[in-house]
Amino acid sequence: MNYVPVIGLEIHAELLTKSKLFCSCAAEFGGERNSRCCPGCAAMPGTLPVMNRAAVEYAVLAGFALDCSINKFSVFDRKNYFYPDLPKAYQNSQLALPLCINGLVAIEYESDGVKKSKDIRINRIHLEEDAGKLIHDDLNGVSLADYNRGAIPLIEIVTEPDIGSAEEAKAFVEKIILTLQYAGVCDCKMEQGSLRCDVNISIMKPTDTKLGTRAEIKNLNSIKSIGRAIEHEIYRQSKLLDAGKRVVQETRRFDDNKGETKSMRSKENLDDYRYFPDPDILQVNFTDEDLAEIKSRLPEMPYARLDRYINKFGLSEVEAKIIVNQKRLSDFYEDALRAYHNPKSVCNFITGELMRRINLGEINLEKLPFTASALAKLAEMADNEAVSKNDAKAIFRIMSDEGGAPEEIAKAKGLLITNDTGKVAEVIERVIADNEKAVLQYQGGDMKVFGFLMGQCSKELKGVCTPKVIKEELEKKLKGA
Amino acid sequence: MDIGKLTLRAMRGMLDRKEISAPELTSEYIKEAKASGHFVTVCADEAKAAADRAQKIINAGRATPLCGIPVALTDNICTEGIRTACGSKTLENFTPPYSAHVADRLNSENAVITGKTAIEEFGMHGSAHVSVFTADCGAVTLRPTYGRVSRFGLAAFASSFDQIGTVAGNAHDCGLLLNSIAGFDPQDVTTNKKSTPDFTAKAGQTAKGLKIALPKEFLEDCPDKGLINAVKEAAEWFTAQGAEVEEYSLPTVKYAYAAHRIISSAEASSNMARYDGIKFGHRSKEDGSFAELVRASRAEGFGFELKKRILLGNFALSNNNIQDYFFKAMAVRQKLREEYTALFERFNLILCGGCNIPSILAGLPVISTSGISVTGNYWDEETIIQAADFFERGQES
Amino acid sequence: MDVNTVKELAALSFLNFTQEESEKAAADLSAEVEELKIVKDLVLEYAPLKDNRGAYLKDLREDIPAPSMPVERLLQNAVNSENSFVVPKVVE
Asked: CA B312 to CA B334: how far, in whole Å?
């Protein structure tokens, strides 16, 4: 039977603050174990949380970026459970009064080759702390706890169950990633765990009015596995229902190798988190001015950029999307335009040569060997015919391999077109003298031989003169001769 | 010399006049401390070194009020490099790598920390009595307004009640001690940013014109008739001295004990959860899974009363009970605060006796001396010190 | 409060109780809960806003990192290995 999947997502995104949520320890990725910890990070007696202002501001910024309302009075709770990566044995989170509520995210995606769009509602965004990391030491049969990541600020974005398929879920997460990156609140590196996703999923018959029992799939760490986990879970739950069995409400884990979800049931943690307001953390109030100030920090969002690229710059939708869909690329493009404002030709270089090399894995967008203004200069030189189109590509290749400024590369390799008129005149005269027959044919009205004469000139004038100049000079000479 | 009889002001005078040196005073005090049986740790060497430093400052004529004065801390206040066991087996070998804010403040004032005094496990009833040894030595205890003194480095039991107070031989000295430890601390965001006054400013004044409330519920419901009589006598005395004393009803006081018990147990259950034997504290020798190790460590490390308190807290917070118990208790506290606020629009003080749970529930400052207690309005420690000091002087004459 | 409830709460609290302790705790806590019940039926509602202590953004800590504690001091009270807290093997 065909079932209707009902899916909600919980996305955890680590905020880009410099210090942790409750103490001044550095909030960086990696590092020597427990080197970014203080007594508070290890929950020692008498230590107290001191809330990081930037974390609150980033969470609110994310709220604005995702069209949420901001609670002007927000409360922090304790979520109590025992786990070795959680030193206080409670996680500070927000239950009743989170920072942001009622957001909306419009997604676009393709399903069976058809373009579709949908609005996904955000239930809430709350601020909470990350847990530490456990390293499994198989040799000694123990686990080792490292609290460097503990208490790094996270936002949890919780959707309403508005998502109906793996495609929609993937499109949603992609949109969230792009939005958070543009807002500057999270780097969203799923492979490093700075953005993680839990999926709540149930299925129902199209005629059902009540939702089915849901399973929660925890800690998905790539867009691809989100899609695969959902597909598998729909399949698993459908098979259960088809066989007249029931879906159990539980937490499951996705095994990337097998492409299956597995139950994570444990008897040890009962599902009663005993949330209560943390007496050590003050509730946060916002004035209208505070909120307006935070909102004003929101930079241009991807949809606004897309609109500008298409309608102001005249890029095609495909080109505009290629650029906008990677914030770093788009920022690079913006930087290049500041050096040379020809959106179309800079775009051609980016979507053409640059993307080709990136896709081939020859260069990495995160550490390009040349600057945006160098690429802009190259585009400008090509537009001004200071180098030929083909030579521009060659110069780009050198820039990719070795770095360097395009003018200097062109000069060193003798690729600069000087339009030396003396040399042009000399070559054309020689060609005319050497090809008397062809010249006479042309002057007799046989225009076809022009191409031949042009070719003779170009051969000798390559890198000296642009074809346009050769053509003009040659025509002049032939008519005057 | 009978150290116990000296007031802080007397000690200050003797030190400043060089009638006794800080090391001499400290060594006398250390002797008493060792003999008293109230100390779990006596820091003889550290105290000697601190007294020597203090003496140099006294000699230079730069002594601050507590310079060279011996002070003890309860053993739930963390002291860097000095074992801090909180009266619990779970922390019997715990040496903090940091000091509590109050310990830092005392050190920077060159007070001499002589050691750590015994408490019940994690000061379980510490919210009612600053320390167990106060009751049996006739000491005066001052519990300031919640938020007056930083809790940084005080091992938490019930966070919204935990409040470091001062214990001394009289109300005036309690105020002097409070002067040295009170104030905003960025490490404890619940401390108040108000500037701290001289808490002893009104000591020495009379009670003339003070408006004193006598809680009806205490007079009617307190099972200890002796206590009621003591409070009534004190009320008559205050009236004779020119204060206006009037009975006043606080209907929600009836629920204060239950609300205090529920909220404090709930907070304690959460605060005690960090004692798992992994990061610090007693770690069981039993092998097994994480859960088995933690359960065994906690079972071995905590006393039975504390364990019951944790169960009670988790009972009050669990899914089935949180609305009926925990949030009802939180609502009681809010209601009680409103009643107190209304009371203090008409009165300066509340005269009472016993354990003062309602005042503690509301976070009000309270001082206990000579068989009575005096509660004041939020942030008005000066007036309770005034009344207690006046009462003490009245008792002496 | 019966012995079963005590056992459930003990599991939630990560505490071991012997049968004897469970029975004692059940008896003691039953008596106590009986006294605490008086709050249950009060017509009062907890209002989070009434506990507002008026902290605004400007009152929060500035996001400036500071040095952490040397790892050997952090671990001085713990069973440790390779700069880490040692926990029994956690199977996920």
From this structure: 22
Q: What percent of chain B has pLDDT over 70?
A: 96
Neighbours of chain B (3+ CB pairs under 8 A): A, C
Question: Which of B24, B25, B110, B106 lies closest to B62 in space, CA to CA?
Answer: B110
CB of A290 less than 8 A from some CB of C = yes
Q: Which of residues 26-65 of C touch B (CB under 8 A)?
A: 28-29, 32-33, 35-40, 42, 44-47, 50-51, 53, 55, 59, 61
Pick one of 3.30.540.10, 2.40.260.10, 3.40.50.880, 3.90.1300.10 as the CATH number of B201-397: 3.90.1300.10
Chain C interface test: which of A15, A28, A34 (most C C-beta within 10 Å): A34
Residue given tokens 């004044």 in the structure block: B205
| B279 shares contact with chain A (CB less than 8 Å) | yes
> B1-5, long-range: CB within 8 Å, 24+ apart, which pairs?
B1/B28, B3/B28, B3/B29, B3/B32, B4/B32, B4/B137, B4/B169, B5/B169
- Residues B296-312 pLDDT 10s: 999 999 999 999 999 99
How many Cβ atoms sit within 10 Å of the Cβ of residue B67? 21
How is C18-76 classified by DSSP, letter by letter?
-HHHHHHHHHHHHHHHHHHGGGTT------GGGG---EEGGGSBP--------HHHHTT
Cβ atoms of C91 and A135 within 8 Å: the answer is: no
> What is the predicted pLDDT for the residue at B131?
39
User: B3-181 has which fold?
Assistant: Amidase signature (AS) enzymes (3.90.1300)
The one-letter code for the residue type at B283 is R
Angle at alpha carbon of residue A278, lines to B91 and A76, rounded to 5°: 140
Q: What are residue A412's phi and psi, to 5 degrees?
A: -60, -35
pLDDT tens digit sequence for A157-177: 999 999 999 999 999 999 999
Which portions of chain C are predicted below pLDDT 70? Answer: 92
What pLDDT is recorded for position A269? 53
Domain extent listing, chain C: 1-41
Q: Indicate the domain borders of chain B.
A: 3-181, 201-397
* Interface size between B and C, measured as CB pairs under 8 A: 131
Residue-level pLDDT at A424: 82
What pTM was computed for the model?
0.91
Q: Tell me the C-alpha distance between A160 and A399, whole Å.
A: 48
Q: What is the DSSP letter of B326?
A: I
Percent of chain A with pLDDT over 90: 77
Domains by residue range for chain A, with CATH: 4-290 (no CATH), 300-412 (no CATH), 421-480 (1.10.10.410)
Q: Which amino acid is at B25?
A: L
Residues A72 and B337: their CA atoms lie apart, in Å, by 24
pLDDT at B136: 52
Report whether pLDDT(B132) > 50: no
Q: Using an 8 Å CB-CB cutoff, list chain A residues near C87.
A: 84, 134, 142-145
**Which residues, at least 6 apart from B50, have a Cβ–Cβ distance to it below 8 Å?**
B26, B107, B110, B111, B112, B113
pLDDT score, position A460 = 80
E strand spans, A15-152: 69-70, 73-74, 77-80, 90-93, 100-111, 114-129, 133-137, 142-146
Residue B151 to residue B74: CA distance in whole angstroms: 13
Cα distance between residue A106 and residue A97, in whole Å: 25
Write the DSSP symbol of residue C10. H
Does A382 have pLDDT greater than 70? Answer: yes
Q: Would you state the pLDDT for residue B354?
A: 83
Please state, in angstroms and rounded to a whole number, the distance separating the CA atoms of residues B41 and B246. 46
> What would the mean pLDDT of B234-257 be, rounded to a whole number?
97
* DSSP structural state of residue A212: -
φ, ψ of residue C57 to 5 degrees: the values are -50, -45
